[in-house]
Amino acid sequence: MKIEVPSIPEHKEVILDPTNTALIIVDMQNDFVRKNGKLSVPTAEATIPFIKRLIDKARSSNALVIYTQDWHMKDDPEFKIWGEHALAGTWGAEIIDELTPEKSDFVVKKYRYDAFFESSLDYILRVKNIKNTIITGTVANICVLHTAGSAALRWYNVIMPKDSISAITEFDYYATLRQVDFLYKGIITTADGIKFER
User: Is 153 helix (H, G, I), strand (E, B) or coil?
Assistant: First the structure.
């Protein structure tokens, strides 16, 4: 059966105020990005240069940079679904070297797909008066999408650069873009399309 992908509008340029914008990098950790990771996403490594470009732009504009870090206990119930991955304190749970957080960045440990679930993320965004969230990372239709949806349900604007997310399958990738556009009224663009201006 062939499925036709609905048209997903793309914004060529998105201008954002760095004082009320956060770049959120979801789960760019060894277990998801590296080929020898326990839950490797085939296209994750290809997104690294695009995410790095966004990080550099955000830092140079003094926009907020937040990393999420999947962080599981040894007997985490989620392992029944996906197998053991991102085990707390292991190599697999570490953020990849190319995207190492700096002291001025925030790292939010997450225990479920949604980075807002029982974490400090919403508190950080509200204290920093954030209105816009640029959401990048992996796995697109799981942790990226749940985080984007949770941001939208809290009335943050969601901007998703399509070259800065990765999924296990092509279907999952397009399903994510469709949901962000159609259901959460987010903006789909590219890393180069995002510009910071006060």
Answer: helix
- What span, in angstroms and rounded, lies between the C-alpha atoms of 91 and 168? 21
From residue 85, alpha-carbon distances to 100, 125, 182 in Å are: 20, 27, 31
Give the global pTM.
Answer: 0.96
Rg of the chain in Å (alpha carbons): 16
SS (H, E, C) 119-145: CCHHHHHHHCCCCEEEEEEECHHHHHH
At a CB cut-off of 8 Å and minimum separation 6, what does 180 contact? Answer: 145, 148, 158, 160, 186, 188
Residue type, 73: M
Under-50 pLDDT residues of the chain: none
Angle ∠(137,139,141) on CA atoms, nearest 5: 115
Q: In the structure encoding, which two tokens stand for residue 127, read together?
A: 């204290």
Closest to 65 in 3D by CA, of 22, 96, 119? 22
What is the Cβ-side half-sphere exposure of residue 32, based on CA atoms within 13 angstroms? 31
- For residues 146-171, one letter each, b for 16 or more C-beta atoms within 10 angstroms of the residue's C-beta and e for the rest, the string is bbbbbbbeeebbbbbbbbbbbbbeee
Q: Are 188 and 163 in contact, with CB atoms under 8 Å apart?
A: no
Contact between residue 67 and residue 25 where contact means Cβ atoms under 8 Å apart:
yes
Q: At what angle do helices 170-182 and 145-153 cross, to 10 degrees?
A: 10
